[in-house]
């Protein structure tokens, strides 16, 4: 918007028309006072100011405008008479104006100057706006930095109040915060606590997880800086993501030493108890066999039936004790696998045969898929144990259905064979499926209805792990379960 100031109405009119014809927006003022009033209220890109005006002349108006911060930078073009003394013109410049045009006005020259000033002022305004925006952004950033700092302080305070050792790592895996408890196990903020020589190295494990972008969970012994004793801790380091990028990591060491000791004592007790039980049981078994032979009882007679029942119960007890012994072997790393080249299909048929012979009820076991009539390096007794466990469970946890399907797949490409045991029984809830392979885990909903100790699948998982295969389950509650294991062909 341009403001034209002239006391002569016809001059005002002709200048206004001239500028409007070039698409400029124009306002007019008939006196210096009116011009001042308007300039203080509105933003003008340019003021065209007649020098000779009664009351307040153009120079006075320009000087007054120069005194106000709002108007001091608005460019001014003076319109002056040809014979205006040079000293008046310099006076015009001194009071902050930028140029002058002599009367009578040459429209072309005036338009040229107006355009130049107008553009300059527009650019000035745009620059000012940019500057203001920049200032606003800087202010916003400063504010969010302050908020972030207070959030971080709050977070650190929370970590400080945890009963665990807590720390954070930056995106490069460098420790950048530790709580007070850290110093019970490390002398400096940067170095991780010293781990037991037989345990994993924290840095190495962390680097592996950092490469995969995955959380780290590890049970390790770390050395107390004061007592020099190692205590078992559960180390957890979790990545914190910010829009798909790891921003930093938060870690804790939880002291599980007491829990570990209790677990060890329990394992030792189980190991001793099962060993002690095994010896008298073996004698009982032998004596019952002797008795059976000596008495030559008719199997159909009540006495013969009793002996068979006793033998059945001894067998159950024997399986229980053998399983407990297996658990303690696993704990001590002594579960040994004796691999030989064996035809897997014959192992499967043997297991099915054993199950059919030892179950009185009518059981239907179907065989599906490509039969693995191939030699695979495996421990025959242990793999049969896994199959018998899967089949026994399939029957046990299907009280309303007696059908079981054993399906096998040979995957030449992946160089592995897969064995599925499918039942149509009670099924397992989704979120409990992984846990069934854990030691002593039993699904709560069914644990009262079915007898068991929750160690069969734990042993199976360990046997398959030692064969470098995988175990797993897929299941739908009320519809049934498929337990599977895979074995590498070589
Ligand atoms: P156990 O059968 O002695 O309890 P396992 O280790 O063999 O121990 O099985 C662990 C748990 O997994 C069982 O207690 C049961 O809750 C669940 N489970 C195992 N097999 C099946 C199955 N075929 N169908 C439903 N639940 C099963």
Automatic annotation (TrEMBL):
Start and end residues of each PAC domain: 216-268
Reaction(s) the record says it catalyses: ATP + protein L-histidine = ADP + protein N-phospho-L-histidine
Keyword entries, A-Z: Kinase, Membrane, Phosphoprotein, Transferase, Two-component regulatory system
Gene3D superfamilies: 1.10.287.130, 3.40.50.2300, Histidine kinase-like ATPase, C-terminal domain (3.30.565.10), PAS domain (3.30.450.20)
Domain of life: Bacteria
Entry EC number(s): 2.7.13.3
Molecular function in Gene Ontology: phosphorelay sensor kinase activity
InterPro entries xref list: CheY-like_superfamily, HATPase_C_sf, HATPase_dom, His_kinase_dom, HisK_dim/P_dom, HisK_dim/P_sf, PAC, PAS
Record-annotated Histidine kinase domain positions: 272-490
Residue span, Response regulatory domain: 1-118
Modified residues (4-aspartylphosphate): 50
Main EC class the enzyme belongs to: transferase
SUPFAM superfamilies assigned: ATPase domain of HSP90 chaperone/DNA topoisomerase II/histidine kinase, CheY-like, Homodimeric domain of signal transducing histidine kinase, PYP-like sensor domain (PAS domain)
A Pfam family matched in the record: HisKA
NCBIfam families from the UniProt entry: sensory_box
Name of this protein: histidine kinase
Organism the protein comes from: Chryseobacterium ureilyticum
């Amino acid at each position: 918007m341009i403001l034209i100031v002239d006391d002569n109405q016809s001059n005002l009119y002709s200048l206004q028309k001239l500028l409007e014809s070039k698409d400029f927006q124009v306002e007019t003022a008939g006196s210096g006072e009116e011009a001042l009033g308007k300039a203080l209220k509105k933003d003008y890109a340019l003021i065209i100011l007649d020098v000779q005006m009664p009351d307040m002349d153009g120079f006075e108006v320009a000087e007054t405008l120069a005194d106000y911060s709002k108007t001091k930078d608005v460019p001014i073009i003076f319109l002056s008479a040809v014979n205006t003394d040079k000293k008046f013109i310099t006076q015009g410049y001194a009071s902050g104006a930028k140029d002058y045009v002599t009367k009578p006005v040459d429209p072309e020259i005036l338009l040229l100057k107006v355009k130049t000033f107008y553009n300059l002022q527009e650019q000035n305004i745009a620059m000012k706006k940019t500057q203001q925006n920049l200032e606003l952004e800087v202010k916003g950033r400063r504010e969010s930095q302050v908020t972030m700092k207070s959030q971080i302080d709050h977070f650190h305070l929370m970590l400080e109040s945890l009963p665990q050792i807590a720390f954070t790592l930056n995106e490069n895996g460098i420790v950048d915060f530790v709580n007070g408890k850290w110093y019970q196990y490390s002398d400096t903020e940067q170095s991780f606590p010293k781990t037991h020589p037989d345990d994993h190295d924290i840095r190495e494990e962390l680097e592996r997880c950092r490469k995969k972008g995955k959380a780290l969970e590890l049970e390790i012994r770390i050395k107390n800086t004061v007592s020099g004793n190692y205590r078992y801790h559960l180390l957890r380091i979790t990545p914190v993501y910010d829009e798909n990028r790891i921003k930093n990591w938060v870690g804790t060491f939880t002291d599980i030493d007491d829990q570990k000791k209790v677990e060890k004592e329990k394992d030792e007790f189980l190991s001793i108890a099962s060993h002690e039980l095994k010896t008298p049981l073996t004698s009982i078994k032998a004596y019952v066999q002797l008795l059976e032979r000596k008495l030559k009882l008719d199997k159909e007679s009540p006495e013969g039936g009793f002996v068979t029942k006793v033998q059945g119960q001894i067998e159950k007890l024997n399986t229980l004790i053998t399983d407990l012994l297996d658990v303690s072997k696993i704990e001590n790393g002594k579960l040994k696998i004796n691999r030989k080249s064996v035809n897997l299909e014959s192992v499967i048929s043997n297991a099915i045969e054993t199950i059919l012979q030892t179950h009185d009820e009518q059981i239907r076991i179907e065989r599906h898929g490509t039969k693995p009539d191939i030699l695979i390096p495996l421990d025959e007794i242990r793999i049969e144990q896994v199959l018998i466990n899967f089949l026994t469970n399939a029957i046990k946890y299907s009280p309303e259905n007696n059908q079981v399907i054993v399906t096998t797949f040979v995957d030449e490409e992946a160089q592995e064979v897969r064995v599925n045991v499918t039942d149509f029984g009670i099924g397992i809830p989704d979120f409990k499926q992984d846990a069934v392979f854990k030691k002593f885990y039993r699904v709560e909903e069914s644990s009262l209805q079915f007898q068991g100790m929750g160690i069969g699948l734990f042993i199976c998982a360990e046997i398959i792990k030692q064969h470098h295969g995988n175990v797993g389950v897929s299941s739908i509650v009320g519809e049934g379960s498929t337990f599977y294991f895979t074995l590498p062909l070589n």
